[in-house]
Amino acid sequence: MFSKFFIEHPIFASVISILIVLAGAISIGLLPIAQFPEVVPPTVSVSAVYPGANAEVVAETVAAPIEQEVIGVENMIYMSSVSASDGSYNLTVTFEVGTDLDMANILVQNRVTLAEPKLPEEVKRQGVNTKKKSPTIIIIASLASKDGRFDELYLSNYATLRLKDTLSRIPGVGDVGIYPESDYSMRIWLDPNQLKSRRMTTNEVISAVREQNVQVAAGQIGQPPAPPGQNFQYTVNVLGRLADIEQFEDIIVKTGAGGRITRLKDVARIELGAKNYDITSRLNGAPSASIAVFQLPGSNALDVSARVHAAMEEMSAFFPEGLEYTIPYDTTMFVAASIKQVYITLLEAAALVFLVLFIFLQDWRATLIPAVTIPVSLIGTLAVLLAMGFSLNMLTLFALVLAIGIVVDDAIVVVEATVTHMENGLDRKAAAIQAMSEVSGPVVATTLVLLAVFVPAAFLPGISGELYRQFALTIAVATVFSSINALTMSPALAALVLRLPPENKNAFFRGFDRIFTRTENRYGTLIKTLVRRTAFMLLLALGLTAATGWQFTNLPTGFLPTEDQGYMLVHVQLPDAASQERTNEVLDRIDAVIGSTEGIVDWVIFGGYNLIDGTAASNAAAIFVTLAPWNERN
């Protein structure tokens, strides 16, 4: 008999349980933590810029060649693209759930490489970027100047140069976006009248700027092989790329007959400004620069959040005076609160199960055997979750809560059977062996029945199957571990620690037994009465079934429950072709409304940003609103 070996070798049974617990304990720190399983299909983005082109030109010259090559890439579900009026192009390729994102990125990159020879030269010069897309913003950190000494351009440039790279290197961060991404740039405003009088074209000016604003390697003087007697060797430094307005003004754009020189300042006005003004950022109504941190799919959201907070705190020590940061938007607050509450529920459920076991078994030794099953089964399950690529999320933790009541059943059967044979005169070891010869089959059968219920859910197709697969398999794995424990550790402990229940019970247990016996007798009387009224009971059952069916068909349906997560996302959409000035006027009114609303802590506004497709649009805006803690709101 399988269990007899472990009854005779209890140390071996203990080692098995200890190894299971150790494997699970090691896995706790390695499991990613998330609100729900990863059900969002993996995506890869392709982006390019055609300066000066409108949306139609971008669609014809950039989108068409790239999409002709990318379409049909392995495991692709669909793709969508946006060709914007600012010359930008963004393609999002969506793959089937479960596709390796790294491999998908490589496959798309290979297809884009095939399309590059067909693209305009200016687009190739700017570069075509292919990367794994991270659709989820988990944190927004905003820079602001409380005393007004730094403008939005300085804040954006500081975030790009000093903060972005550090945040991008944090494990689990998929991307970091700066809003607005207003890099310092020389803006050259051409005077068409001056160009006409000098018979010049825009392309001549562009060529002159491009040729004279370049970093070159000028070589060395005295570099070997050199003539004999060369005592020194010098590296030649030249001006290279231009850095200020005066240097740009002196660029020679044309040399006329007789040596007449036309400089850039003669035909244009030069100023230091931003590369683009398409997007603006506000923090609680004041100008700011915002850093949006995107989570890498499959990473630990809470760990990423903690690392971002720590990095911002560390870098803030080197901020110039007058520059401050705040984190007005953090989606992990709800995740952390939810996970914490589930942990509390898990402990409460375990305590209640232990209490119920003790009250009914009325002996701490008998209670210990099924109680040991709980940590062995639940902690051991974590090791399998890690091996299967699952995460600690609301569904897997909920499954563990439900599993607490399931995993103790087999151990209780073992204890009851062993005590019964001890009451018939067998010693503990013989009673345990005899009990296992009777209950081993039912224990295995019960496990197989539960597996038959939950395992098929792992094969459901689509996003629903991916969502509930982790829930079903978590319960199934915990059930398997409880059966292993019931066939190994439980009989070994029963043979070691069980004893016959005392004849003289204390007052509490005597009172409980009287109440339980009275309830049992009344229940028996009720059953006898109902058995004699078969027709009535059948009608009642049919009525309840019909009521259940009616409720099932009339209850509202949804993919996931609607929950108060502590924040809101607002998409602002104006009519097509609405200017940025018009959009900002609307945002001014929205700012006033949000600022006067109770229960709102912080809000960030990205003017000119379309929240739906993630592109710049003068007639759109995105608002991220953080609400006050749940206990501070009505």
How helix-rich are the residues, as a percent range?
A: 40-55%
Q: In percent terms, what proportion of residues is strand?
A: 15-25%
Structural class: alpha+beta
Annotated CATH homologous superfamily of the domain at 2-36 and 335-501: Multidrug efflux transporter AcrB transmembrane domain
CATH fold type of the domain at 2-36 and 335-501: Multidrug efflux transporter AcrB transmembrane fold
Stretches where pLDDT falls below 50 for ≥5 residues? none
Mean pLDDT: 88
Global geometry:
elongated
End-to-end distance, in Å? 62 Å
Protein model, in words:
By secondary structure, the protein is of the alpha+beta class. It contains 20 helices and 19 strands. It has a five-stranded antiparallel beta sheet with strand order 14-13-18-19-17, covered by helices on one side.
Question: What is this structure, in a nutshell?
Answer:
By secondary structure, the protein is an alpha+beta fold.
List keywords for this structure.
Multidrug efflux transporter AcrB transmembrane fold, five-stranded antiparallel sheet, Multidrug efflux transporter AcrB TolC docking domain, DN and DC subdomains, 19% strand, Alpha-Beta Plaits, 634 residues, alpha+beta
Helix and strand arrangement:
Layout: H1 2-8, H2 10-28, E1 43-49, H3 55-70, E2 76-83, E3 88-95, H4 101-115, H5 121-126, E4 129-133, E5 137-145, H6 152-168, E6 173-179, E7 184-190, H7 192-197, H8 202-212, E8 220-221, E9 234-235, H9 245-249, E10 252-255, E11 261-263, H10 264-267, E12 268-274, E13 280-283, E14 286-287, E15 289-295, H11 301-316, E16 323-330, H12 332-361, H13 364-387, H14 394-423, H15 428-454, H16 462-487, H17 489-497, H18 507-531, H19 534-554, E17 567-573, H20 580-595, E18 600-610, E19 615-627
